[in-house]
Amino acid sequence: MAIVEMRVPTIGESITEVTLSQWLKGNGDFVKLDEPICEFESDKATLEFPAEAEGKLIYVAAEDDDIEIGGLVAKIDTSVAAPESTDTPEKDEAPVAETKPEAAPAAPAKSANYATGHPSPAAGKILRENDVNPSDVAGTGKDGRITKEDAQKAAQNKPAPTTAVAPETKANTATAYSRNVREEKMSRMRRTIASRLVSAKNNTAMLTTFNEVDLSEVMKLRKKVQEKFVEKHGVKLGFMSLFAKACSNVLMEMPDVNAMINGNNIVYNDFVDISIAISTPTGLVVPPVKNVESMEFHEIELAIKALAGKAREGKLTLDEMKGGTFTITNGGVFGSLVSTPIINEPQSAILGMHAIKERPVAINGQVEIRPMMFLALSYDHRVIDGSTSVTFLVKVKEQLEDPMKLLLNI
Q: Same domain for 136 and 201?
């Protein structure tokens, strides 16, 4: 018996452990070389683990197990030969035995085989969220693999089950004054988020300063140019690109806010990589848009759109998650009026955007109703002085309240 051991490969410098989130092949199944056998959930992304040999798969680890880099996941018995396919004989018989109707099921048999194909990470998530059994989906990808498009179609076409009310019924079966509790293991991403947030609170001298911005002129600008902007670039001019550009302009002017601590040194960056906080079904991720200081507004919008799409589909690569010199998070999309965002280490500052609310404000001695937003800048006081943080927010506010300054970077 020739056995090949499948061990967790080195994924990234900072990753020491992964979670086996899902087996893609069954225990005892025959696997081909480079065929994905399972998925790993790391601190930053979900990754497929391909077979390193051809043979019979033997489980060693179980789903939800935490495995260190180099840890044993499975074994492959290479002495086991591939099972003989029944498709070829049926194809050979079909032309000769025309009177045998039983020869025709060859195609359905293959189709059924494809239906049991494993889904891609994005497809698997869609199927799980919509409670669709992968075995009921005919994969159109390579070797019968279920693609994202297959999963979306299956979710859309899923018939309403007669037991659709079961989950709701179960949720409502608790009697009055019930004190039932349940305990679930935290996902790898949730544990990583928790660890990083505690680290940021414990290892930085974090403070938050606030200001408010009148978005009247920004909203007029968007309304004026939106139609032509979409027509030319194929994407809307959103608030995020305007805020990102305003921040990048000021960050290039105030390098302290764009810096970070490295031991006893301060690292200053001559570029601006803005990490954009994106909410996903499994947690918050902050992939950076790189060199924002050199980008046009439509380039920023397209980059954010691409990263958001990949994040929600679980397709972000480790390289796409690396880096970032400053972070922007928008709690306003969830209705937050004001908050104190936590620094994204090793960065030194994070800008919090919030909900736009019409409020009465004094303008030239008169009360007017304006679309206002509270801004919050959390910063590491070890690197950034209080006066620097306040000045940064004031400059960002000035650029947003006068878009000509934003466009001309003055």
A: no
